[in-house]
């Protein structure tokens, strides 16, 4: 039953540029996890340099300080107003517990017995316990355990380094305000500014005295025998109620 199919399987050849093959390759590239994280892996290899005055760092520090102060005073704020005074500190259970805890945590009292007895004990350097302790210290030592890799060095004229420096300069508050430092302490008069000149021009345009000239201020002599003057006199005589 399958003899003919097994014989045909070895003779079938599919061209690599068929739509089905191209679609399968595109789907494989879309679902590939290696290609998905390739840009992130390359960015991690380049390294980064985050300044202490960057905006995210300043925001994180401020948030940390606010949260730390809130957690530190949380118990005090809850117990405020619920405390009942005692005559002595020994009668207060909380003060007694705090004194006991302080006594247990006191480093001087904790090490007093050791300092009293350390000069009375002698251990040979070749003892089995000492040798075992040295070997255990070597095994758990962080210096021997870690093998630091070489430090990556980036050329200063690389495009990504130049771009990162420009980005840090734009985000840095000190660099952002550096061009205003030379203005500090310098006085400035409004005379000659754009707003003052604009106001003066507007005042000149709206000034009635400069816009219009009064007739009595104009020096001229009218001709009495001009045609328009003679016609005006005739019209005045004809329209006069007195005449």
TrEMBL record:
Molecular-function annotations in GO: actin filament binding
Cellular component, GO, one term: Z disc
GO BP: any one term: cardiac muscle thin filament assembly
Keyword Repeat: yes
Signal sequence extent: none
UniProt entry keywords in alphabetical sequence: Actin-binding, Repeat
Keyword Cell wall biogenesis/degradation: no
Name by which UniProt lists this protein: NEBU protein
